Amino acid sequence: MIQFLGGDGRILGDLPLSHEELVRGYRALQRVRVFDERAVSLQRQGRLGVYAPYTGQEAAQVGPALALGEGDWLVPSYRETGAALIRGLPTYQALLYWRADPAGWCYPDGLRIVPFYIPIATQLPHAVGIASAGSYLGEDWVALTFVGDGGSSEGDFHEALNFAAVWGTPTVFVVQNNGWAISVPTESQMKNTCIADRAAGYGVPGVTVDGNDLVAMWVVAREAVERARAGGGPTLIEAMTYRLAPHTTSDDPSRYRADEEVERWRQRDPIERLRRVLDDLGLWDAEQDAEFLRELRVEFDEAVRRADKAPELEPQELVEHVFETMGPDQLEAWGVLRER
Amino acid sequence: MIQFLGGDGRILGDLPLSHEELVRGYRALQRVRVFDERAVSLQRQGRLGVYAPYTGQEAAQVGPALALGEGDWLVPSYRETGAALIRGLPTYQALLYWRADPAGWCYPDGLRIVPFYIPIATQLPHAVGIASAGSYLGEDWVALTFVGDGGSSEGDFHEALNFAAVWGTPTVFVVQNNGWAISVPTESQMKNTCIADRAAGYGVPGVTVDGNDLVAMWVVAREAVERARAGGGPTLIEAMTYRLAPHTTSDDPSRYRADEEVERWRQRDPIERLRRVLDDLGLWDAEQDAEFLRELRVEFDEAVRRADKAPELEPQELVEHVFETMGPDQLEAWGVLRER
Amino acid sequence: MSSKRWVPISSRLGGSSVNVDTQQQTSVRTLNLVQALNDALDVALEQDRRVLVFGEDVGRMGGVFRVADGLQAKHGKERVFDTPLAEAGIVGYGIGLALAGLRPVAEIQFACFLYPALEQIISHLGRYRHRTRGRFTIPMVVRAPYGGGVHMPELHADSPEGILAQVPGVKVVIPSDPERAKGLLLAAIDDPDPVFFLEAIKLYRSTRVEVPEGNYLHPLGCARVVRRGDAVSLVAYGGMVEVCMKAAEVASREGVELEVIDLETLVPLDFDTVLASVRKTGRAVVVYEAPRTGGFGAEIAARLADEAIFDLDGPVVRVAGWDAPYPSFASVEHHYRPDAKRVLEAVRQVLTR
Amino acid sequence: MSSKRWVPISSRLGGSSVNVDTQQQTSVRTLNLVQALNDALDVALEQDRRVLVFGEDVGRMGGVFRVADGLQAKHGKERVFDTPLAEAGIVGYGIGLALAGLRPVAEIQFACFLYPALEQIISHLGRYRHRTRGRFTIPMVVRAPYGGGVHMPELHADSPEGILAQVPGVKVVIPSDPERAKGLLLAAIDDPDPVFFLEAIKLYRSTRVEVPEGNYLHPLGCARVVRRGDAVSLVAYGGMVEVCMKAAEVASREGVELEVIDLETLVPLDFDTVLASVRKTGRAVVVYEAPRTGGFGAEIAARLADEAIFDLDGPVVRVAGWDAPYPSFASVEHHYRPDAKRVLEAVRQVLTR
Ligand SMILES: Cc1ncc(C[n+]2csc(CCOP(=O)(O)OP(=O)(O)O)c2C)c(N)n1
Ligand SMILES: Cc1ncc(C[n+]2csc(CCOP(=O)(O)OP(=O)(O)O)c2C)c(N)n1
Ligand SMILES: [Mg+2]
Ligand SMILES: [Mg+2]
Fold first, then answer.
1. What is d(CA C7, CA B71) in angstroms, rounded to the nearest whole number?
2. Residue B181 Cβ < 6 Å to ligand 2
3. Which fold is adopted by the domain C224-352?
């Protein structure tokens, strides 16, 4: 398992990131943590629909997101709101998505993020196609996609890895092995719980990384992205992490797992670990932290206000965008719905 | 690659089979070869429908078939008529299957062979379920299933291996890596062309075997079957072999592959290689061979006669066996069809 | 002919249910749909060792809707268990269990996650008996929550019964009430053929009714007249039955009596009951929440256009989802899913056009 | 409203085709369906660098039916290529290509092998535009041979158009003639939305007609009256059109003139053309080879039961496959697939019942 930070945040040897990068990484972690905490509390107030938190998995998401270049694509599952925020998804849109408002899917033009995927693992072949299109068009973009430990059991995982491998497409697969697929622990999901071990079968590099170590996640993902861009083909990165929160806000994890396990992982909080590094290097202090968190909360509150102002959908919009040009059935429905 | 016989049939060290077994294996190879040759020529005469020959792959099929015990299950693809014959499928029924006669699917009671599978790789999860049912029922049966190199690209391959691995079901997976999936060579099918390498990713034993070496195929399969029966879980066996014949009788391989490649593999004919061993050990002579082939042909001709006598299907039988008890739609159709 | 003759049970028994094991019905309890289904699974596990219950999150957690709640603790991990996250694998694995003599009851977490399993469903579940002329059969039940009305994420409100009903050799059952659901699920598990059992999410906890304890079977293949009327026949199933009942109440207040038919089993379809009703009323509205085009309601309307053409005094109108994906957009969901208002508009249409 | 208004092209142009690029049509050749489709792919590859053609055995071999014959040699391995054996992968990969701006044309070897890809089809192909309110679209074509009549192994004769037509957001085109097929395939590739293009195996080499060279488009969404008559409207598509034409010839000899409608595009459906015909004849027979229950013909009959109820002088009868799997039993195949005789029996029924 690749690691640059000890479980307690002590530095294990030379850090391959600059001080500026370390601070940038830390700020990114805090930013997505604030979103996550606030989203959960909004949901509790009934101001958000169901929400899939990623508490504890921030580094596994932020590292790969930071590793991407301007023109690269992010192909997330439903779990990666954090990665999407770092790649430029406006906060208010992320909120609208989780509010089940269509504006939450209408990303700004040119943002190379596809929307969150609900059907597990179906995004993986799309990431291969997107990557392949870049090669064909002479673009040098890379497609980076996320999937869970549970998702690695789906046939799509296998088919996508095989396609990417045989054609050497510039695709980076990041598995967030967070220990659970809702109530099913990784040990009941697979026998060999090291998912990176599957890479060899496809003939691609596979690497297991401490997913709660931002430095490791960023550096390994950056290497994979660069290799892909240089024509070196796909990489399978397995991020060992843990879902501290419920599966979604509708889930009650006490039905299936012990608090002690959660506590053990809480000790390996990716933000705490990186903060300790910044502390040790004198790059960030408590005051800065407090000020930054305050800013983030203000930003978030503004995003909430902006989201609240999103226009109501008209009923007839239900049947728009089925085709570019409405068919007769949509047109008929449109007429009926407009009268409602 | 596990091998007991050299490419030319020289013995490479101690043979783990008795003399009697060697002769039994040889006879089995000849038996399925005669079926294959005769079926192809029947097809050319228009007396069979489309047929999928297995010329050159006899050892890869016969070895695993011989490795099975009385109560074990065989779960074949469309390619394994040879394995099915050795497991007890009556020759005339095999012919009827390829004549697209329903009697070809009506196996004798108690024969633990499921019918040939058309949709690629879909048989694999069934083999896991059958194996699992045995464990649940306290039976000690093993399910052995076949799939092709092409079939290993399907999601079902992955899902089945993962299920079998995590539950340790007594399932033996045999991949016949015969170089081609119709016109697609293994190198265009996957990057790492060693399919057994995938086993490690699931945490199960994987082994690559000379698929044209009957001794190796039998011994390796027997080991896997015994391990499975003893509770040791599944094994992935990759048989390196070659499809000398067209994909089916409708296929024209000259469109996609060179004769030289075929010739090279013809030199490694599994039957010739084993004959050389029997020769060297003085277990079988030309006279016996000729006599045995004569018997096989007589047997085959009898099977053809028996198949020819299969009763014609009545039109209304089309809608029987949709459900145990006909629904009103089948009943209506039944009435109409009976009048035809 | 080796297949037995089908006799619509409704015609034998006047539409009432068959209580196979009346002794055991010592008492009744008031249960919601989730509880009634849980009870059915419990009874099936209890009385037939061949029954296994499995799916994603089914073992430890009892399923995301808790239909299998407590069953693993009671019947053991060997009989009630979690699977890896792979729906084709789940159905394919179940097929294997059934081929070898067991009675698998698989849960697919939401009906939309049947899609990855459709190859196994279309190519094998419905064909195995036919393929082998009855030598191999697949007495398997696949349960899945379906339909809208309780705002779910994208895809989670899909109603794919129209796809399943096109697959020859599989049965499709969609209950609308806890008491019926229990008897139908027990009959599905008892059935010699594969059965899809779709459960309207909207109904899971919406009402509680008296449900007998122990084992009882409601035969598959019988539609029920759940409300008598003479003006228009409303044909529905699952989550749309309560919508039709509500419409019928409103209409009744205006003196128009609607007849409501709950199909319950889509395949094999008891069309006789529909036909008898439409022959009486002369008018029909078919209600379903899947997109209108190609949905199962088209089949009902098509049969009426054939068999009831001279009995119809008005058009057969379908009230269905629009020809668009079921919206995951919270604010407009109620404009998509048919409601009593739309049913009543259709009633007006068929009465006046 | 951001979507454009749909105008049925048939009503604008009286059902005739639109020749977008008339200059290029310098000459015609006599081609069968395979050749016409091959020609269409060639033209598309020639004129639009975004077009890629791929699938199992499509590159080196040109497809099992040779529809892509010679295209790899001409357009290169980068643009015409083999994929691994994985249909969900093929469709999913194509979706990715399309999301990134290309125009993928995938071949699925037989329509039955669409089943493993149905999750990608239902969950993404038809939903992406709707999901993202038009930000991301999938202008992809998925071609597949379908249907029976030339004795194929199990599953290979399936007709799954009724499943595809239930998926909102995908178009479904089924040509019945080489000249139309070329123009329709070019229109499908040109279309901004995903299109399924099903090709009747029975027609692949059965007839040859004059096909213009170069680029021309037949717009999607237009049904065609392929034979005029006044007695009964026969509604069909794909492989059933020739069956209906044969029936019409026989009937004509007896003085009964049948009108034959070739739907060509199932989604979006040009029902106006069907309606106009049935309003004229007062009678309809719907012909398709998929199992009757739930098939696409039910949709046609259902619409007639709604919109033409007062125009109908007889029942709407469906002639379809039986509610059983398409038989892989050579000796009885012809009893399953509708033929002219069965169509004529239905015609008699609707004329006399
Ligand atoms: C094809 C499919 N099957 C089932 C589900 C229901 N489901 C949603 S999340 C989930 C568990 C996913 O676990 P994992 O892949 O480990 O991701 P995590 O939630 O841990 O991020 C399941 C079963 C789904 N969304 N898609
Ligand atoms: C799901 C599915 N897709 C496609 C096909 C069509 N097809 C039949 S055989 C074949 C190639 C199979 O190759 P392989 O698995 O290597 O087996 P082999 O024929 O070499 O024994 C293909 C593509 C099929 N039968 N099933
Ligand atoms: Mg997980
Ligand atoms: Mg092969």
1. 39
2. yes
3. Rossmann fold (3.40.50)
Mean pLDDT confidence for D61-85: 98
For residue A260, count CB atoms less than 10 angstroms from its CB and return exposed for 0-12, middle for 13-18, buried for 19 or more. Answer: exposed
Q: Indicate whether D293 pLDDT > 90.
A: yes
Q: How far is residue A10 from each of residues A4, A15, A30, A273, measured CA to CA in Å?
A: 9, 11, 19, 8
User: For A180-237, what is each residue's pLDDT tens digit?
Assistant: 999 999 999 999 999 999 999 999 999 999 999 999 999 999 999 999 999 999 999 9
Task: Tally the residues of chain C.
Answer: 353
pLDDT of residue C7: 39
Query: Which CATH fold would you assign to the domain C29-212?
Result: Rossmann fold (3.40.50)
Of the two residues A330 and C23, the one the predictor is more confident about is A330
pLDDT of residue A238: 98
A180 strand-pairing partners: A185
Q: Is D166 on the interface with C (CB under 8 A)?
A: yes
**Chains adjacent to C (≥3 CB pairs closer than 8 angstroms):** A, B, D
CA distance C203 to C181: 11
- Chain C (254-273) residues lying within 8 Å, Cβ to Cβ, of chain B: 267-272
- By Cβ distance, the residue of B166, B191, B195 closest to A189 is B166
Q: Domains of chain B by range and CATH?
A: 19-309 (3.40.50.970), 315-340 (no CATH)
Phi first, then psi, for residue D14 (nearest 5°) are: 60, 35
Tens of pLDDT, residue by residue over A33-58, are: 999 999 999 999 999 999 999 999 99
How many angstroms separate the CA atoms of D309 and D315, rounded? Answer: 10
**Cβ-based contacts of A182 with chain C (< 8 Å):** 56-57, 61, 64
For atom 7 of ligand 1, the residue with the nearest CA is: A120
**Domain residue ranges in chain C:** 29-212, 224-352
As for ligand 1, residues whose beta carbon falls within 6 Å of it are A 79, 118-120, 148-151, 176, 178, 180-182, 243, 247; C 56, 85, 87, 109, 113, 116
Identical fold, D29-212 and D224-352 = yes
pLDDT at A134 over 70: yes
A14-18, A272-276, C17-21: least confidently modelled range: C17-21
Alpha-helix residue ranges (DSSP H) falling in B45-122: 58-67, 81-86, 91-98
**pLDDT profile of chain C (353 residues), mean per 10:** 39 39 69 98 98 98 98 98 98 98 98 98 97 96 97 95 98 98 98 98 97 97 98 98 98 98 98 98 98 98 98 98 93 95 97 91
Bridge partners, B237 (sequence order) = B174, B207
Whether ligand 2 lies within 6 angstroms of the CB of B244 is answered as: no
Residue of B nearest to A165 (CA): B191
Expressed in angstroms and rounded, the spacing between residue C78 Cα and the centre of ligand 3 is 24
Supply φ then ψ for residue C172, to 5 degrees: -135, 120
B259-263: list long-range contacts, CB under 8 Å, 24+ apart: B261/B179
Ligand 2 pocket, residue B79 CB under 6 Å = yes
Reduce the DSSP state of residue D140 to 3 states and report it.
coil
- Chain A residues near any Cβ of chain B (below 8 Å): 153-159, 162, 165-166, 168, 188-192, 195, 197-204
Q: What number is the ipTM of this complex?
A: 0.97
User: Which residue in the set C119, C221, C271 is minimally distant from B122, CB to CB?
Assistant: C119
Nearest to B201 by CA among A197, A161, C85: A197
For the CA of A78, the closest atom of ligand 1 is: 21
Beta-sheet strands, E only, within B165-284: 171-177, 180-181, 184-185, 206-210, 235-240
**Which of D99, D127, D171 should we substitute to test contact with A (largest number of A Cβ atoms within 10 Å)?**
D99
- In chain A, the largest separation of any two C-alpha atoms, in whole Å, equals 68
CB spacing of A183 vs C335 below 8 angstroms: no
